[in-house]
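Hey L., structure's done. Input below.
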Amino acid sequence: MATDLSLELEQAVNSRRNFAIISHPDAGKTTLTEKLLLYGGAIHEAGAVKARREQRKVTSDWMEMEKQRGISITSTVLQFCTKII
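Output:
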């Protein structure tokens, strides 16, 4: 049983990739997050912070202050399923 659990744990660890997006303020972290959500199939249309007013709505900026000022205050965590190569 311990062997099965070890194998299952190893497979779970091997299927995960962690990365962080850290950059200067106003460098495009929110826009990159929106693109990851779009290409990952979580959303159907990606917003952009520096876009025309009607295209400015971004999924990852959910707080009222973020929406009003076009800034990101909170952190975002994304999880995608991957194929084990």
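The CA atoms of residues 47 and 58 lie 4 Å apart. The radius of gyration is 17 Å.

-- N.
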